[in-house]
């Protein structure tokens, strides 16, 4: 394989499915890869996915995947000439980007100062306001006095949403319905944000009722070219985090789509953006949309964009980091067909989607046409409480939205997961739901349809007696007894 002109050996400062995803593109480009792993991750696929592997010694994140010095040392020791941060972890940490560049390594991502600017929800809001991009009405001043903050909240009008300025992953967010709830919401959001981000500054925003989360994939190179790869709809969320994503956004008027992608490009050209990014918008029921935040990295849900546009976004990231021009112009980028992705988590939909770590006795996603499965784990691995419990992502493409959904539903039905409680059956019911099928997506979808989506609910006693009944019939297997309880409806159906 002919070597790419620039980066020859890339270290991936991450874990799980995204490390494997980046390795796959590097292989196709003839770039060697270095993967890193913490000792409790030594049996996971990512640990051995690359050409070289470096153990990050330590027992907690600050000693392993979040340790800048150890990652730089791993790059030096393995002879890597570049670092890809993946998503999460240090991917939006300006200090990390700067340290990588200072160590004379290529950082596969935007310059540190752009990360710092857009990573701060307050700064990026101000910037958007200064260039005429609408932001959600809110207050991001420095007031600490509760009287003053209460005045600001009244100006905005209840309900308001309290958010962490340094936020991410839905942490530090509180909905406040009236003035009397404000003080306690500020206090708990402040301590959650301080613990999660080491930064307890807060922002107040008007809480939009039943909005949609629609985001635009952007890409810029170092030659001043700023492109977009259209939008993704990510409204199906729990705990403010996405679990189903798709492209194009269903039932989005063409005019709104055009305005949204144009707005995203206005932002990236104004800040001189470089690399892959996502401009997130929140759209109210009247179709007005507002800037929410910008993520200066590759997004978990990037496969749906790849499936409808036909481009490899990791390849583009590497090309841009090598100083190359983006390979196409805007008119070459089209939305072809439809793609939908689901995030398969070890979590309990019956218990407010709390993580459900444990040993994944068996995991086997199917190999099907037009289906992508990006896996962070294999059978026998432990889904640890120390990390995000996403087991895998499954995405399907179809000429129509219906075809894509049907293919994804079929793929989920053929995915075998046992040993940990998981959301596989829940995701299938989302895909089956008539409102989802009709494209009626909004961020309250799961709360609104909770009853229907949790319909196969059995109490622990019922599960025990069903399992006993199954044993009496003499054909129980370890698979059956270790299946998630949300799976019981399928194998007990014949007993009723
Ligand atoms: P984070 O950075 O923690 O992911 P975001 O600002 O991106 O936070 O918001 C995450 C989700 O929270 C959004 O997708 C949306 O569902 C909800 N959200 C955020 N801001 C608002 C708002 N002003 N009104 C209603 N929902 C909101």
Would you kindly provide a written description of the structure presented here, covering whatever features stand out?
This protein is α+β, with helices and mostly antiparallel strands and 496 residues long. The chain folds into three domains: 9-108, Rossmann fold (3-Layer(aba) Sandwich), CATH 3.40.50; 137-206, Dna Ligase, domain 1 (2-Layer Sandwich), CATH 3.30.1490.20; 212-483, D-amino Acid Aminotransferase, Chain A, domain 1, CATH 3.30.470.20. Helices cover 35% and strands 24% of the residues. It is built from 18 helices and 23 strands. The protein has an eight-stranded antiparallel beta sheet with strand order 14-13-10-11-12-15-22-20, with helices on both faces. Strand 1, helix 1 and strand 2 form a beta-alpha-beta unit. Helix 3 packs antiparallel against helix 4 (112-119) and helix 11 runs antiparallel to helix 12. The model is unreliable at 473-496 (pLDDT under 50).
